Amino acid sequence: MGKLWTLIIQLHSVAGPVLTLLYPLYASVVAIESKSKLDDEQWLAYWIIYSFLTLVEMVLEPILQWIPIWYDVKLLTVAWLVLPHFEGAAYLYERFVREHIRKHITEREQHQVQHQEQSKKSPNGGKAKKKFVEFVTPKKGDQEAY
Question: Within its chain, how far is the Cα of 44 from the centroid?
């Protein structure tokens, strides 16, 4: 029984890195090389969600170390995210992440359009920006001091 228990513990400790890193890395490379865009979205979504999960885990580590089944819950969650049968990462991305990303992207695009309109309406016609760029860029013949 002791050897079987040791084997189970060793497999359990190896399953985490294999499931969270090795298989997703392999699948991401395969997805990049394939012509389909769907698998690219699945693995990009996985890496976004896995990064977020890792950051949350780092912040909440003092609390999570008191929960004895945390590693098992994390392993099952990542399995759901990774396994192609479930496509959990794509589901979470579509359901929760995409709407927040699109909201921020549209806000940024609106800000850029407003900034461009203001620069067109500026009294000096953008001359200050042009002068700054000319000041910052090195001229031919100028040498670095270091």
Answer: 7
Amino acid at 53: L
List helix spans (H) across 18-69.
Answer: 23-33, 38-59, 61-64
Q: What tokens were used for 39?
A: 């698998």
- 64-97 pLDDT per residue, tens: 999 999 888 988 999 999 998 998 998 998 898 8
Torsion over CA of 111, 117, 121 and 124, rounded to 10 degrees? 70
Those residues with Cβ within 8 angstroms of residue 80's Cβ, 6 or more apart along the chain or in another chain: 86, 88
Please give the radius of gyration of the chain, using alpha carbons only, rounded to the nearest integer: 25
pTM of model > 0.85: no
